[in-house]
Amino acid sequence: MNILITGGAGFIGSNFIFYMRERHPDYRLVCLDKLTYAGNLSTLASVLDKPNFRFVRTDICDREAVYGLFEEEQFDMVVNFAAETHVDRSVESPDVFLQTNIIGTSVLMDACRRYKTPRFHQVSTDEVYGDLPLDRPDLLFTEETPIHTSSPYSSSKAAADLLAMAYYRTYGLPVTISRCSNNYGPYQFPEKLIPLMIANTLAEKPLPVYGTGLNVRDWLYVDDHCKAIDLILHNGRIGQVYNIGGHNEMRNIDIVKLIVQRLGKSEELITYVGDRAGHDLRYAIDPTKIHSELGWLPETAFAEGIVKTIDWYVNNRGWWETIVSGEYQEYYARMYGNR
Ligand code: NAD
Ligand code: DAU
To answer: Whole-angstrom Cα distance, residue 307 to residue 313?
Structure first.
């Protein structure tokens, strides 16, 4: 197997590379990544010089470069993680989200058509379903829930999903799509809730909770997401969407308090700030389809995963302290300065 993994220098893509190398040591993995602010080559340091691994720095929107790579490599599968992923940044500047998430996905699928790649897997998100009310815990997102997006980010991901289904129907491209809930774990960029709160708590800086802090997300340990994608790649049905989530709904404020407690700091660090524009209230996945068709179940309970994650950030300060200098400081001042 020769698999192209785009966005593999980011959070989930890098964890997927580590997962696949352990699970399928005979597979060749090619990582294509533009190395935006969110991509970090040091994350891949342990695999860069391995014989069955190749890293290529390219933009998925660069058709010529992408075709050139497909010309050189005969890929059996493409797994597309590459994306702009932070909702707050999409509210500030939608443009790059439309470019990468929509145009970039179509370039990759055109390459798959041209070079007859047997599988294109689109890594999507539960955010394409919009949000659920806080007072209806009985409601969950299924694969049949209509697409109904809130942010430029989720709209661009939904557009990519629609394009993928259109390529399947119109051109017969062998496509699968997965829509996962919020991931957490090692190597997540510190702009996202959990690593941001860990980094700020360690530095005893204010912990900026948006709005009431009562918004709910459905958290999944990143390895469980990787395992689900591996199962879909090998046993999933072409043309199908699979939701991924582990019935682990939590309020933002409870996550923040848990992090503060674990790190032995004061809850006085918690600071309520202005809400995110268009802030989705609640996400919750119904994973019945992937469970019944592919036997997937999450393996890491939140109580275990969050401790592993906090400990990882405590023990790997070098990784994120480099990241939170430079561009991140400007972003942080812009995003949180006047909130
Ligand atoms: P991330 O922001 O950590 O990483 C994105 C990676 O894509 C980075 O390495 C970046 O350099 C690369 N990239 C960005 N633009 C590119 C371009 N034009 N060409 C090539 N590479 C480019 O993202 P993540 O959290 O790891 O998310 C990966 C995928 O999973 C995304 O498609 C996202 O929508 C989806 N997803 C994320 C979550 C989550 O909780 N993080 C949940 C569900 C789905
Ligand atoms: O559901 C899957 C999605 O999860 C992915 O598709 C996205 O790529 C990923 O970024 C994530 O989106 P969210 O917007 O849910 O994640 P984020 O970590 O940005 O925020 C989680 C919640 O925490 C959300 O309700 C906003 C809130 N929040 C976030 C930050 C960064 C705060 O209260 N304070 C903050 O500083």
So the answer is: 10
Q: Which atom of ligand 1 is nearest to the CA of 86?
A: 2
38 is a domain residue? yes
Which residue has its alpha carbon closest to ligand 1 atom 5?
A: 10
With respect to residue 146, please indicate whether it lies within any of the assigned structural domains: yes
We report the CATH number of the domain holding residue 179 as 3.40.50.720
**Whole-Å CA distances, 227 to 290, 309, 320:** 11, 18, 25
Residues 6+ apart with CB under 8 A from 233: 3, 77, 79, 119, 121, 176
What is the set of active-site residues? 126-127, 153
Q: Tell me which residue of 36, 28, 16 sits closest to 80, measured CA to CA.
A: 16
* Distance from residue 84's CA to the centre of ligand 1 (Å): 6
Ligand 1 centroid – CA 83 distance (Å): 4
Domain enclosing residue 107, as ranges:
2-187+219-248+282-299
Residue 7 CA to ligand 1 centre (angstroms): 6
Cα(97)–Cα(103) distance, integer angstroms = 9
Q: 11-23 vs 222-235: helix axis angle to the nearest 10?
A: 60
Is residue 49 domain-resident?
yes
**Cβ count near 180 (within 10 Å):** 26
Give me the number of domains the chain comprises: 1
Q: What is the pTM of this model?
A: 0.98
Enclosing H/E stretch for 221: strand 216-221
143-202 pLDDT, tens digit per residue, is 999 999 999 999 999 999 999 999 999 999 999 999 999 999 999 999 999 999 999 999
